[in-house]
Amino acid sequence: MKSVYLQKSFLFLWLAQAASGLGGTFATFIISWLVYDLSGSKIAMGMIWISFMVPSLLTNLLAGPYIDRFSYKKMMIFSEWLRAITFIIIGGLLLTNQLPLIVLFIAAMVAGIAEPLFRPASMAYVASILPKENLQRGNSLLEGTMQTMMLIGPALGGLLLSVFGPSLVIFILTFAITFAGILLLFVKNTEQLQSKEKTPWLPMFKEGINFFKMYPVLFWIGILMMIINFSSGAAQPMFLPYVLEHLQGTEFQYGLFMSLFSCGMVFGSLITGFFKQPKNLRFVMLGSLTLGGVCLVFLGLVTNIWVALVISMAQGIFAVMFTINNTTFYQKRVPEKIRGRVFTVRALLAQSGIPIGAGLGGVLAEVYSFSFLFVTLGGLTILATVIAWSSKIFYQLNVPLVEGAVLTDDNLGDGVLHKEAT
């Protein structure tokens, strides 16, 4: 881990993501609370997520292929400061008691435009400054730190909200996101390593898609993530009314519920970062997704807030174990020149299920119950992973990366790739 810390640019990126993680967690918390406070509608809670995800997907689709043309550093700074400006406006309207619901939907749209610029750029940037042997630990450190901020954020946000009101929460998150952009000014610019050709949008986007033909398992991981994210997209907007109504909890307990999810992710990040990437990656990745689905079913069955808190923490552990190993699997296989494009296609494929789930989740919770919603979503997740367990394509997760290797039906299940004859 020492060699990771000695990277100056990685250090500033690490600190920036910590500040951004705290600000982003406060942002998610306060927007959800404000929408529910102003509307009291479960459907509105789902719609705010749609307002975020649809612009996010469109930004991935239209801007993603161009990310490799520009400085990853400038892209990340722009993303942070655009979000900061948005919350400055919200804070001003809130202080004057003139904050309409529509402004929160617009803010979600702006965040949906800004955030997809940051994630692919940061992933590609990390892969460009760290050697491959340090990627697993570097990703674990970044993910663990971000989840630490998310661990602190919801509970702290709930406490500050109950004591001081929403204005202080908005001030802190605006300062944190702005400071993250300032820290990113000190990372080195890797423009010289990035693509400078003036290829039109469509060929560049196709180039990102065509990479998935080299590793078919990446495509099917994306399909699996799309199904999982459909369930997540339906469940996450409902957590606030779930805690307040179904579990008879408070805003602070909702914050604690979200914080313990992040606590689980921190713990899972520490475990994942301590060990090298597992040889049986299929078992770890599919196993963590299956157990995540089981946790979602249990959330639908329990009525005790403290039991739900434990389940939330377990969900975080399983979620981050999949996320870190999946990200590292991509980073080690994607050529440097097209990383931004491939990561964008990956995000587009995986996240396309979220807005559909968000819209449906609010309706199911409103018409039926939270129990029906979470048991159904958990069952869908389990079904998808059971199919993946029985699919031969996912054995490619266990195939080691070998220079000049090719995937064939003959070596697909043996866990070893052989070099192509020349």
From TrEMBL:
Primary localisation category: membrane
Superkingdom in the source lineage: Bacteria
Keywords of this entry: Cell membrane, Membrane, Transmembrane, Transmembrane helix, Transport
Annotated localization: Cell membrane
Topological relation to the membrane, as annotated: Multi-pass membrane protein
InterPro entries named among the record's database cross-references: MFS_dom, TM_effector
Major facilitator superfamily (MFS) profile domain sequence ranges: 9-396
Sequence intervals crossing the membrane: 12-36, 42-63, 167-187, 208-232, 252-274, 281-299, 305-324, 345-364, 370-389
Protein name: MFS transporter
Species name: Evansella tamaricis
